[in-house]
Fold:
Amino acid sequence: MPAETHSTHEPIGPAEVLAAVRTHLGEILEIDDDTISLDSSFADDLHADSLALIELVEALEEDLGERTVGFTFDDEDLGDLKTVRDAVDYVVARLGATAA
Structure:
């Protein structure tokens, strides 16, 4: 194995990212994660405030940071995340960028 290889984990796909988002949101918002879908709006459907989104970001960074070196959210991008799908797509895109 080359020295620069820092992870033996398989690539993280959209389904796994969605599962992580649902699990963390369920815990943060104290709701059943089965009620969270890709099309759920953070504000309108889940009643998540900005603090809940920050908690979600921190949890995802911690989770994914263990598997993908350098994974972070850009603070200026958080305002663009309106739905669960937005968050999943953002994470998948960022993971693709960190893997390159």
Q: What stands out?
A: Helices lie at 14-29, 50-67, 84-99. DSSP finds three helices and no strands in the chain. Residues 41 and 72 are 22 Å apart (CA to CA). Residues 14-99 form a domain with the Non-ribosomal Peptide Synthetase Peptidyl Carrier Protein; Chain A fold (CATH 1.10.1200.10).
